Amino acid sequence: xxxxxxxxxxxRLPNLRLLTDPADLEHYGRDWTRRxxxxxxxxxxxxxxxxxQAIVRWANEHDVAIVPSGGRTGLSGGAVAAHGELVLSLExxxxxxxxxxxxxxxxxxxxxxxxxxxxxxxxxxxxYPVDFAARGSCSIGGNIATNAGGIRVIxxxxxxxxxAGLTVVAGNGExxxxxxxxxxxxxxxxxxxxxxxxxxxxxxxxxxxxxLTNPPPPSQVMLxxxxxxxxxxxxxxxxxxxxxLQAFEFFTDVALRHVLAHGAQRAIEGDxxxxxxxxxxxxxxxxxxxxxxxxxGAERGWISDGVIAQSEAQAAxxxxxxxxxxxxxxxxxxxxxxxxxxxxxxxxxLHEIQALLEREYPHFEVVWFGHIGDGNLxxxxxxxxxxxxxxxxxxxxHVTKLLAxxxxxxxxxxxxxxxxxxxxxxxxxxxxSEAEIALMRGVRQVFDPKGLLNPGKLFE
Length: 460
Fold this sequence. Notes:
By secondary structure, the protein is α+β, with helices and mostly antiparallel strands. The chain is about 35% helix and about 20% strand.
């Protein structure tokens, strides 16, 4: 605490937890990208909204940049503090604030993990439906900052659809309440939706009112082995037309190999280039329809093999084959692309991009998986052992520029659900026009006049 600025902050907020130990600076100053050296000034861990306001006002007085921090599970460098910023971690603000039985809303602090929100909703017999593999460590504030999607977007949509209200500390320390849980509100601009997906650049989300829904009906999980990417799209169209899908996730044989090496159990014998885990409503009629649909897909040559879960344990084991991919790849420190397109644009795009990746990555292992039901693909490139990190990233960034150009021609986005952060900042112009980016800069200037909130993220 020899820094006079930190001494002043500690004097103003004597109960604030403030960390400066080198191990803490490294831990809180980075996210899953691991590409930047963490160099924050300090880590502030407030426990109440008033402390967040005081921290932001202090930052304005001392011209200290702030990096809002949740679970730091991001993959785009959005939570990186590499230039002396103060990391404002909301992990201690992790409580349920209230449940409204009539409105069926749950009000929470932004530091709650997604898993904790799921459990809180379950206590009231309801469901918060946004879900993905990092549920145990990601925070609601981070989900809001990136408009997180996950494995059930096909049924429930993204985070945006489930936010009824937000409490936000703006760049000047002012406390703002957006929408206040209303279902209908046509009283001007809905700033709530500006904050969703803004990556901490417009304000610090401190509280959220979440909409809940009824738990889904009993479901059935099926694993399918498919002969080609074209078959994946044909099977999706077939299953979507005949079943009430909750999820439809695909992955490749390369992805499966890594998950099996990481401890998962093989469910289908033999080698197949593509796999799908799908979950659908499973009353008696739906189960009969599912078997008939499977048989029709097999007759048309789109399905090579398949297995249907006979228990909750088997269903979890099948889901592990998909949800365990990111963890199984983590030791390889992959270079990740997270892209999206209209589903109708996928066939033409996939043929073009497969050729591009084969041409540009002849000696690299490329792992595909994603949410085919909402047009979101994850491309993971693994570094060959003989390449340095710097050379590997340089080659990958060259290919990402080509990928971004291809996405632009097909009307896609360089970021589906992980945000822009630092990693994708050079390619924002392939998804947004110059006019749009100018408007984004103007909005940011209004909410954060001094540019202290998560500087360098989204754009310079």
